[in-house]
Fold:
Amino acid sequence: MITVVVCSVNPDLLLQLQNSLATTIGVEYELLVWDNRKEQRGLCEMYNSMAARARFPLLCFLHEDILLQTLSWGKVLVNLFESNPDTGVIGIAGGKYKSAAYSGWFTGNPELDCYNITHRIQGKDHKLVQQPGGTARLQEVICVDGVFMACRKSLWERVKFGDQLLKGFHFYDIDFSLRSSLECKVMVTLDIDIIHITSGGDYGNNWVKEAIIFHEKQHCPLPRKTNEVAMGNHELEIVGTWLDFLKKEKISLKNKWLWIKKQQLYLHPGLWYDISKFILYRPLGLQTIHRLWRGHAAGD
Structure:
C-alpha cells in the first residue's frame, strides 16, 4: 500500500527507523533506501529516482532521524487519502501561508502554522502541537516540512521534485508541496505522532544559498495562502521572524549581506534592529551571554 523512501547517511539511525516502521506502520509496505554517504546526491534527484521504482500508490518520504509512535499510522494515512480524494500531499507540519520573503515553511504566526511533532533533546521529549482554530485534526496548508511527507504516486508523476532547480538538501519539500497545491489540497494531519531524535537542522550557509536560489527562480507565485487565511501584512512579520531565527546560525557575513541586500531589507526602518541582531548576534558572542543569563535566572 505504501512505499517508504529514505535517504540515509547514518546506519544507526536507519536501523532505528527500520525497526520503528516494522512495528508501527500496520499495512503492507516497501522500504526504499538510498545510501547517500558517498555520492551525496541532492534530495530532489534521489527522491525522483527512488519514487520511479515504487510499487505502491502512496509514497511516504521520511527523514531517517525519526521514530514513528502511532500504531497503525499507515492505516491512518491510507484512510485520510481515501476519504479525501482531493488531497494529494499530507505532512505532520506545515504552513497555511508561504511568504515571498526568504523563509522556510513556518511563519511564526500561530494562526498560520500547524504541526504535531516531538523533539527528543538530551534524552527528554518535548511535544509541540499547534492547531489553528483549535479543533480540526486535518488542516489545509500550502506547504509541508519534509521530515514526514506523503503523497499519491500519481501526483508525483505529474509534479516531481525540482531536481533542475534544487541540487542540495533544502527546499525540496516546500517546492514540491507548493507546486502540488496548485492542483490539489495539501494537508497536515495531527493524528500521526513522530519523535525527532536529533536536534535542530542545518540552517547555515548551504541553507541560505538554496533559499536564495529557490525564491529567485521557483515557479509558484508567492505569496501564496489557503483560502481561509485573510490577506494581511504578513510579509514584514515573517521577515522579522526569520531574521531572529537565523541570528544564531553559522552564516558567513557575506551570505548575511546577500540575504539583506537581495530583499532590500535595509529600506524598512522597522527592521533595522532585527537586521543588527542578525548580523552581530553570533559574531559578538551574544548567544553565550543569553545562555548564561537564562541559566542564572533559572537558578534564582
In short: The chain has a mean pLDDT of 93. The chain has two domains: 2-229, 233-300. The chain is about 35% helix and 25% strand.
